[in-house]
Amino acid sequence: MKIARTHRQGATSLFVLGLAALLPVSAQGEVATAQIAPEPAPVLEAQQEPAAIVIDAPAVEASAPEAEEPKKTLEDSTVIGEGMASYYGAELAGNRTASGERFNPNALTAAHRTLPMGTKLRVTNKANGKSVIVRINDRGPFAKGRIIDVSRAAAEKISMVRSGTARVTLERLS
Question: Which of 11, 63, 101, 106 has its CA 20 to 30 A from that of 53?
Answer without folding.
Answer: 63
